[in-house]
User: Which sequence fits this backbone?
């Protein structure tokens, strides 16, 4: 594979879950060889099983049961947004069941979102109504320069064409608007130490794996200028942590413990993981280059 960013030759990095991940020796970007039609893939990938513990999806145990933990993590991010925008129209990309839309509405934002999962969006409509719609970045459409804030929370690594997709999203952003992207950092200590067992190395749903330098390249290509970088830890249920350790961490011990935990209430025990591998950037339009 040629590198998506710099067009240099890449090398096979790891094989996981039946997929190859390649890494560029020049810029460090890593990418999954999906080897299938992206639109057909996302229609199959993000169904009910993705949110309800299908082990083949390697995603959530129960997205709905973990709502309180998810909201707790999201609240950390919206507090950062409030440092730059106290109100305005917000678009959440990959909004799933609409939890961030709910939170943003509660904080006073005029919030909307979209997601390719019809299962998740139908769930979200019970709480946020027509503020959320089904679609991908490819298919979705909004008026030009209509949003003050665009958020992508653990979404950017799922995109087929990050630069093209980000450019389209930025066209929906007002000139004084901001974008928030949260994703994994391949240069984090934990990613380097555990390598293939790092939970962000999750093909085929995760297609690109960034560090601050490669993500900065993408932002610049989409005419965005970073104004803040920071790290966040995450609150997760014990059940979800064991699920990740079992499926993505490839731990047989976690698999055994998970089977026991699933029959008790211990699975709801909250854990805070400050691993330093979740990087967040807030960026604004680079008006001077327009």
Assistant:
């Amino acid at each position: 594979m040629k590198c998506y960013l710099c067009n240099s030759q890449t090398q096979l990095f790891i094989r996981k879950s039946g997929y190859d991940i390649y890494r560029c020796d020049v810029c460090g970007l890593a990418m999954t060889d999906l080897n299938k039609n992206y639109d057909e893939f996302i229609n199959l990938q993000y169904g009910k099983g993705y949110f309800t513990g299908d082990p083949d999806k390697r995603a959530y145990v129960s997205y709905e049961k973990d709502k309180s933990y998810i909201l707790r993590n999201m609240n950390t991010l919206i507090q950062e947004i409030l440092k730059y925008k106290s109100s305005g129209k917000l678009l959440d990309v990959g909004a799933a069941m609409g939890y961030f839309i709910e939170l943003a509405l509660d904080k006073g934002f005029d919030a909307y979102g979209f997601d390719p999962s019809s299962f998740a969006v139908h769930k979200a409509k019970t709480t946020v109504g027509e503020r959320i719609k089904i679609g991908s970045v490819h298919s979705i459409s909004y008026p030009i320069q209509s949003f003050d804030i665009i958020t992508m929370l653990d979404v950017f690594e799922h995109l087929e064409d990050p630069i093209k997709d980000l450019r389209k999203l930025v066209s929906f952003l007002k000139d004084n608007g901001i974008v928030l992207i949260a994703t994994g950092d391949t240069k984090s200590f934990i990613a380097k130490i555990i390598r293939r067992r790092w939970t962000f190395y999750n093909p085929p749903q995760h297609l690109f794996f960034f560090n601050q330098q490669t993500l900065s390249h993408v932002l610049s290509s989409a005419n965005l200028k970073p104004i803040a970088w920071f790290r966040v830890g995450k609150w997760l249920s014990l059940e979800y942590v064991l699920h990740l350790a079992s499926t993505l961490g490839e731990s047989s011990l976690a698999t055994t413990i998970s089977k026991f935990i699933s029959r008790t209430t211990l699975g709801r025990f909250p854990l805070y993981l400050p691993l330093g591998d979740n990087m967040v950037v807030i960026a604004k339009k680079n008006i001077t280059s327009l």
